[in-house]
Amino acid sequence: MKAFALLRPSTAAGAVKALAEGGAVAHAVALKANGIDLLDRMKERVDEPERVVSLTSATGLSELTARGDGSLTIGALVTLQMLADSADVQRLAPSLAKAAGLAASPQLRRRATLGGNLAQHTRCGYYRHLSFSCLKRGAEACPVRAETGVQDTAGIFGNSVCASAHPSSVAPVLGSLGAVVHVEGPGGVRVVPFPDLWAQPERGRASDLSLAAGDVITAIEIPPLPGSMGFGYEEVRVKAAFDWALVSAAVRIHGGAGKVSGGSIWLGSVAPTPLRAVAAEALLSGSVTEALAEKVGAAAAEGATPLAGTTYKVQLVKVAVKRALLEAAGRPA
After folding, report:
1. What pTM, to 2 d.p., does this model score?
2. 161: Cβ–Cβ under 8 A, 6 or more apart, which residues?
3. CA–CA separation, 91 and 295 (whole Å)
């Protein structure tokens, strides 16, 4: 690992200022939460910043607040284990507690943060090893898309430029819950709708976020959700523990008496960014039966463009969405 200077500002505003100082040289400065993803990349020399700005001393970023109206505000430094263990999250957003509790390993969940989980970079082996070329690191084309590419964990949607798959386990859940993201940057504080947090791949841009280099995620807010809601989260992975999902699905439905009258469905690990399944959402109407769940799952897979090594993921999308919908309706598969 290359030597670097470590800065520990005491506020988010201080972190924004520290990011701006000396940041004229590309990749000269990096932002760190608890550093699980960043340090991995630095050890591989994929990232070699001169300065690392740590958020761990910034006040107010580790708070989790449930309000009387049913909304949740979650600081960016709240750990995944805190999310999984929180009685308020389990009550108001059970799918978020489930997704956080399934992520990584117990040791990592106690260090990994919500903000870091959203901001992590792709786990694609071509990106993470300097011996390979990678479009995100500036190569002319994505090597995964080549006939000789290793494709088994690649994305099956939006993969015409880059076939990476965003690995966040909590991102599709937050999308399904209608979350918004609080960001502090050089221009001040702003609120970013969750779909706008993401950007499509471009050559030489490693992050999947739409944020500028000097922006800091400070909190995620989940709005009040009516009591007649159902929540489901399902993921499929190779190993039962300490693994990233091959496909994940988060479902929120509203209705009652075993019927659904709309909702939200988001997919993870299938595209360079978390993906909303709009066609599947349009079918969320009527009694939640096995047949409806299968139909919704099939609709979620429509438009997929799998590579030769990822055709299996199409079926996983169907299964994950079906199971998540049945769970949301109180009928686990």
Report:
1. 0.96
2. 135, 142, 200, 201, 202
3. 29
Q: Is the dihedral of CA 15, 20, 22, 28 positive or negative?
A: positive
Give the Cβ contact number of residue 220 at 10 Å: 24
Q: Is 86 exposed, middle or buried (0-12, 13-18, 19+ CB in 10 A)?
A: buried
- Give the SS3 label for residue 283: coil
CA 250 to CA 266: how far, in whole Å? 5
CB 236 within 8 A of CB 230: no
Helix (H) or strand (E) holding 18: helix 12-20
Condensed to tens digits (0 to 9), the pLDDT of residues 281-323 reads 999 999 999 999 999 999 999 999 999 999 999 999 999 999 9
Give the model's pLDDT for residue 242: 86
Reading the block at residue 84, the tokens are: 């999984």
Structure tokens at 9: 């500002």
What DSSP designation does 122 have?
P
